[in-house]
Design a protein that fits this description.
Arc Repressor Mutant, subunit A; five-stranded antiparallel sheet; about 40% helix; about 25% strand; disordered N terminus
């Protein structure tokens, strides 16, 4: 679907407060007003599974429902991409930041986002006095995502695969079952998100299956029983 004008809350007004906003007393104190202004100036965009949110189409976006992968270049290997962050409901993403490491924003499943292009963001900034502080903190948050991704993916290929599985299992789109967290993703998708070559990924999946950490069910479903991200 294309971008539509905002015509109602649709669950927007009760999205969770991002953790980094909670830790900033000024932003947290006026988060409700900030959210109302974002809704006032933004538009709703619905993404199908696998559809990308074009970085040039927005300045700030918020995930309202579903989940969105933020994918960037792997350090020291520009041909590989890594999963930087798995955005969930209520989280914000900033486009066009200096040295922006995000290359792709892709919907994990049918997802809804609130987006503000540059003109809409300028109107928002004129309506909310802490807009620059919001962007500054958001830049820092995204830089932290990159740093954490680099640290996580610096180890062995099996560790990269496991870290990716932990991120997917920790996301609200996964489901708790008796045999672990149910994740909707294929081996190929996990391999690509982890930035691991096919042959090495095949060995890693086999080892994780033998350890009882993961069990695959069909082509695009698996159960993960390992530790999740905090």
């Amino acid at each position: 679907m294309g971008i539509q004008h905002f015509a109602g809350s649709g669950g927007l007004t009760d999205v969770p407060v991002p953790a980094w906003v909670e830790s900033d007393h000024l932003l947290f104190a006026c988060w409700g007003r900030c959210l109302i202004k974002l809704i006032k100036h933004g538009k709703i965009k619905t993404l199908k599974r696998g559809e990308q949110l074009e970085l040039n189409d927005f300045r700030v976006a918020m995930v309202v429902d579903g989940g969105v992968y933020a994918i960037g270049k792997a350090p020291h290997d520009p041909k590989r991409r890594i999963l930087m962050h798995f955005y969930k409901r209520g989280e914000l993403v900033l486009s066009g930041a200096d040295n922006d490491p995000i290359e792709i924003l892709e919907a994990h499943c049918r997802s809804t986002c609130l987006t503000l292009n540059q003109a809409q963001f300028d109107a928002f900034a004129g309506d909310f006095e802490l807009a620059e502080r919001l962007c500054s903190e958001l830049r820092s948050e995204q830089a932290s995502h990159l740093y954490q991704a680099i640290q996580s993916y610096a180890g062995r290929d099996i560790d990269r695969i496991k870290t990716t599985l932990q991120l997917l299992a920790s996301h609200p789109t996964s489901i708790t079952t008796k045999v672990g967290r149910e994740i909707e993703a294929s081996k190929g998708q996990i391999r690509d998100l982890a930035g691991v070559q096919k042959r090495s990924a095949t060995r890693a999946f086999k080892m994780l299956e033998d350890q009882g950490v993961v069990a695959f069910s069909g082509y695009k479903r698996l159960f993960f029983s390992g530790d999740q991200c905090g």
